[in-house]
Design goal:
OB fold (Dihydrolipoamide Acetyltransferase, E2P), 18 strands, single chain, Diaminopimelate Epimerase, Chain A, domain 1, inorganic pyrophosphatase (n-terminal core), alpha/beta, globular
């Protein structure tokens, strides 16, 4: 394909490609048929949306997209067991994962039970001392005092721990979304769209909080079928969509089908600032505008995750489920402090890991690094940084003595979770699991080299590492004067953007740099113009990690093609359009 704007090697070493000619033709036809801007119809054309469905796509509803909960195996049984425990006053425990998805899932259940005046016990395992998912000692302790245990965002592979809970007298219901094995654990019900025996129609794209939401929809249906109405039928589930939206984006679930509607509606709920925990966290993060998907993934999500990474594992779930504004403020402040601590640890680890991975080779099917004493709560973030730097699946492992624990992140089109599960089946690692885009594993030092060699082989078979750095795909050309807040609002209506739904990236051709200055440690702030009066501000994060920063800062009056995504920037109550700069090339 001919390089877009003739850019075969940009300042970051990438070729630029434009839209497929057929997609471009469809975008132009959509613009004529709908009256929408080409910047919007380019997105619709890429997503395969025909003109008659354009308006509905821009305003997704749960009524049209939400799967029927009864389409999932064990769903009716799980909801019925939860309602039985509610009616008979049984003690219920919620065992949750320590990430955002687990915290939001737990808060959904705790809030729902609280509506009926029924308290629940929250249990979140410590990442370092207990690891991921249910473990035998914790489940035995919970089973002594609770007759029902719900595991959320975990449990599908926890055969021994669930058997121990059963032996201690408790029944277990698993609500999860991680890839299932060939056999299911001995739980009363396992609700998981990624069970191996699920149908192709199961919503495997949902995060755990989305599956929990379906459980509560089914519980409400059963209550109504039993003749209960009003408050007796349960709380307003729409008010809980802020939690589902947060988890969906933070867990990098694909923003397709029902996930789009869940996030769109959830952002509206979040803007109402009714949940004390999210309100306090937004304030401590200085979020001074209506939340967008970006804020969920990069502002709120990391702070909630910080508790499970470097602090107390249950802080995130407690923040999301509290009804006390004072407690919320204290928890939010603590999570913000932990997030700052996490950043410092991450920076030190990242420098060493990137150097190690670079010496090993960033063009391999798998980019990986391992080190002694690396914090197990940070390895996943560093793996994400390696993935971004190399455009390859990445794995980072921290060793404590002979035991190593690692976290991996994948790229689109490469199923990492299934490859890690295969290593478990082949006996090459101690334990492991996950989903397509992320996975975790445990192994010994002796297993490290054979496991990495085999994982590299498995990922290469899926196409990882084939070819060089992926080209930068651009949707269309745009001029600075056209980039207005009104246009950005219309573009946002085609979102939310994230996993499996990348936001549009625009090329601004042949522009001049008005000013450019370094901000922070390695970011670049600049203003550019088309030379006929219109100008636009831009920000390039981590610009000085590549030749991009120095070239633009010392532009010397040269002209450039710029590429990036449009966003709104609110400062001192004024909202302006801004380009989040991804790349540039000299004219």
């Amino acid at each position: 394909m001919t390089a877009f704007l003739g850019v075969e090697s940009s300042l970051t070493g990438r070729a630029w490609t434009g839209p497929d000619p057929e997609i471009q033709r469809r975008a132009e036809a959509l613009a004529q048929d709908t009256g929408l801007p080409l910047a919007v119809t380019a997105i619709l054309a890429r997503r395969g949306v025909p003109a008659p469905e354009a308006r509905a796509f821009l305003a997704p509803t749960l009524r049209d997209t939400l799967p029927d909960p009864r389409g999932l195996r064990d769903m009716e049984k799980a909801a019925a067991r939860l309602l039985k425990a509610l009616d008979t006053g049984e003690r219920i425990a919620v065992f949750a994962d320590y990430d955002v998805d687990g915290a939001a899932s737990a808060a959904l259940v705790i809030d729902w039970l609280r509506h009926f005046g029924h308290p629940a016990t929250l249990y979140v395992p410590d990442r370092i001392t207990e690891g991921y998912g249910p473990n035998v000692p914790a489940m035995e302790r919970l089973a002594r005092d609770h007759s029902l245990i719900l595991t959320v965002d975990c449990g599908t592979m926890s055969h021994d721990a669930i058997a121990a809970a059963n032996a201690a007298g408790a029944e277990v219901v698993v609500i999860d979304h991680h890839l299932g094995g060939e056999t299911l654990p001995p739980a009363l019900a396992v609700v998981n769209p990624n069970r191996q025996d699920e149908t192709d129609a199961a919503p495997g794209y949902m995060c755990a909080a989305g599956v929990v939401f379906l459980l509560l929809v089914e519980a409400r249906r059963q209550l109504r079928e039993a003749g209960r109405t009003g408050r007796a039928a349960g709380p307003d589930l729409m008010a809980a969509l802020d939690l589902v939206a947060l988890a969906t984006v933070a867990d990098v679930a694909p923003l397709i089908a029902a996930n789009r509607a869940l996030v769109v509606q959830g952002l509206k709920v979040m803007a109402g600032r009714a949940r004390p925990g999210l309100t306090a966290l937004s304030d401590v993060a200085r979020l001074n505008e209506a939340p967008r998907a970006y804020h969920l993934g990069y502002v709120l999500g990391p702070r909630i995750n910080a508790g499970g990474r470097v602090g107390r594992a249950d802080l995130g779930a407690r923040l999301l489920s509290t009804t006390d504004p004072h407690e919320a403020a204290a928890l939010a402040a603590r999570l913000d402090e932990l997030n700052t601590e996490r950043r410092a640890i991450e920076a030190d680890m990242q420098e060493v890991a990137l150097d190690q991975a670079t010496r090993r080779g960033l063009d391999a099917p798998l980019v990986w690094a391992a080190g002694d004493g690396w914090h197990p709560g940070i390895v996943g973030i560093v793996a994400s940084r390696l993935k971004e730097a190399a455009d390859r699946p990445a794995l980072v492992i921290g060793f404590d003595g002979d035991a190593g624990r690692g976290s991996a992140r994948s790229i689109s089109g490469v199923d990492l979770g299934s490859a890690v599960q295969r290593l478990v089946r082949e006996g090459l690692i101690t334990a492991g699991g996950g989903h397509k885009m992320a996975a975790g594993l445990s192994l010994t030092r002796a297993q490290l080299d054979p496991a990495m060699a085999r994982l590299t082989e498995l990922l290469a078979r899926q196409g990882a590492g084939s070819g060089g750095r992926r080209a930068l795909r651009l949707d269309t050309l745009l001029m600075p004067g056209a980039a207005t807040p009104e246009l950005i609002a219309r573009i946002e209506a085609a979102g939310p953007f994230g996993a499996s739904a990348p936001g549009p990236r625009f090329a601004f051709p042949d522009v001049t740099i008005g000013f450019a200055r370094r901000v922070g440690a390695n970011h670049l702030k600049l203003r550019f113009s088309d030379g006929i009066g219109a100008h636009l501000d831009a920000i390039a994060f981590s610009a000085f990690d590549t030749p991009l920063g120095a070239a633009l800062e010392n532009h010397g009056g040269a002209r450039f093609h710029l590429a990036g995504r449009l966003e709104l920037n609110t400062w001192q109550g004024v909202t302006r359009a801004q380009l989040r700069l991804d790349d540039a090339a000299p004219v």
